[in-house]
Amino acid sequence: MRKNVIAGNWKMNKVLTEANEFVEETVSKAPTNDKVEAIVCAPFPFLASLVEKTKGSSVKIGAQNMHFEESGAFTGEVSPVMLKDLGVTHVVLGHSERRELFAETDEIVNKKTHAAFDHGLIPIVCCGETLEQREANETKSHVETQIKAALKGLSEKQVAETIIAYEPIWAIGTGKTASSADANEVCAHIRNVVKAVTSQEIADQVIIQYGGSVKPANVDELLAQSDIDGALVGGASLEAASFLQLVEAGTK
Ligand code: 13P
After folding, report:
1. Which of 29, 47, 139, 178 has the fewest CB atoms inside 10 Å of its own CB, making it the most exposed?
2. Is 95 a catalytic site residue?
3. Element housing 12 (H / E)
């Protein structure tokens, strides 16, 4: 039985005091239930403090990006070694904003996915189509290409541990959510892609999240779908009360 993984992606929001307050409230109120896992993916400057504040709790702290190299002359970059050393457990990779605005390619996402596993971090690998691709009926082929590229060269065990987030780009920050049936259809397709590159057993284990305007009002319907195992949430993860409602929904 797969659990629900609810991950907040704060993107470039908050200052340290706000981040600390959010996490204090979340830690004190988050349900401890083995059906759900709560992860807060925060900007780099807050990570050390947030890891400290979540020690001994069920809430995990993730980063939103990292470089694939361990160290070196990469001004402005953050390495997997640094994240692991801080106590960060997860890292979002290949978010559409990084692909679109920072020229991240499938090849880079694959290198980062390997680097995450090499350093004991769990990658949350994002995929998703543009509105143009959806209208041209290219959604499935596009996410298939992205996922095959991201998982290339991983062991079966690593694939099983990878969290995949399906985020249609047209649904991010727009208030437009894919219908739960459409979201489930693509997540089921992704699971089939995982099966094709590994096995049914691995495909049955892999966590596949939906992301794109997830909020307390629509989360139950999304999580009730057969192939949706959680959510990657932007806007509705910025307030502790609404993030907690999403985590609560994951316990059902
Ligand atoms: P919203 O939930 O704000 O649509 O953002 C989704 C997202 O990009 C999460 O990574």
Report:
1. 29
2. yes
3. none
Q: How far is the CA of 199 from the centre of ligand 1 (A)?
A: 30
Give the Cα separation of 240 and 39 in Å (integer).
12
pLDDT one-digit tens code per residue, 98-107: 999 999 999 9
Q: What is the pLDDT of residues 192-219, one digit of tens each?
A: 999 999 999 999 999 999 999 999 999 9
**Ligand 1 in reach of 214 Cβ (< 6 A):** yes
State both tokens at 110: 């694959």
Distance CA 125, CA 146 (A): 9
Spatial distance between the Cα atoms of 50 and 41, rounded to a whole number of angstroms: 10
Distances (CA, A) of 5 to 37, 52, 61, 73, 157: 5, 21, 13, 35, 18
pTM: 0.97
Going from the Cα of 151 to the center of ligand 1, the distance in angstroms, rounded, reads: 22
From the centroid of its chain, how far is CA 120?
Answer: 16
- The yes-or-no answer on residue 167 being catalytic is yes
Residue among 114, 167, 189, 248 flagged as catalytic: 167
Nearest CA to ligand 1 atom 1: 234
Residue written as token pair 């996490």: 23
